[in-house]
Amino acid sequence: MSDLQVIVEPGRQDVVVKRSFDAPRETVFRAMTEPEHLARWWGLRGTETVVDRADVRPGGSWRFVEKAPDGAEHAFHGVYHDVAAPERLVQTFEFEGAPGHVLLETHRLEDQGSRTLYTARSVFQSVEDRDGMVAAGMESGTAQSLDALEEVVAALA
Predict the structure, then answer these.
(1) Alpha carbons 82 and 60: distance in angstroms, whole number
(2) Could you tell me the strand order of the sheet in which 103-112 lies?
(3) What is the pLDDT of residue 90?
(4) Could you report the per-residue pLDDT of 85-115, keeping only the tens digit for each?
(5) Would you say 120 and 106 are in contact if contact means Cβ atoms under 8 Å apart?
(6) Burial class (CB within 10 angstroms; exposed 0-12, middle 13-18, buried 19+) of 126
(7) Closest CA to 4 of 18, 21, 24
(8) Residue 1 has pLDDT above 80, yes or no
(9) How open is the CA angle 108-105-116, to the nearest 5 degrees?
(10) Phi and psi at residue 123, in whole multiples of 5°?
């Protein structure tokens, strides 16, 4: 059972997500950064994620395209600012359908023996941007992606 927490405090520009995984952080980091694994968990259930690029290094860029069963495509991209395997990944995130609304994500993996605590902090340009993302279903999408990440991690462990 997932211990997912999505923390959205009124009036703030950030969202904090916490969840634990039943695997060492090296395994979780691999699943989060290797393209063949990314495509298996990133995005909503029922969609296909195509990893256009994932150059996971400081200054490297990423772009993923999420393809829905009805043929709709939604693309997302960003730049990796910091990559410190296996404990931290800092990147920007931008939905190509709403250009100019860039957020900065910091993903941390904390070693808890055979388990890993994942904490992500997404900082938006404004409270309005943050609230719009939350209203658009961010919590549900995050839960779906992290549940799928758990499946990938379990297969790798």
Answers:
(1) 9
(2) 5-7, 14-21, 115-123, 103-112, 88-95, 73-84, 61-67, 48-54
(3) 98
(4) 999 999 999 999 999 999 999 999 999 989 9
(5) yes
(6) exposed
(7) 18
(8) no
(9) 20
(10) -110, 125
Confidence check: pLDDT of 15 > 80? yes
**Separation CA 85–CA 109 (nearest Å):** 9
Q: What pTM does this model have?
A: 0.94
pLDDT for position 157:
82
Q: Quick: pLDDT tens for 112-135.
A: 989 999 999 999 999 999 999 999
Strand partners, 95: 76
Q: How many CB atoms lie within 10 A of CB 144?
A: 17
The torsion angles phi and psi of 137, rounded to 5 degrees, stand at 105, 25
How many residues make up the chain in this entry? 157
How many C-beta atoms lie closer than 10 Å to residue 84's C-beta? 12
- pLDDT band (50, 70, 90) for residue 14: very high
- What class does CATH assign to 5-156? alpha beta
40 burial (CB, 10 Å; 0-12 / 13-18 / 19+) is: middle
Say if residue 86 is preceded by a cis peptide, omega within 30 of 0.
yes
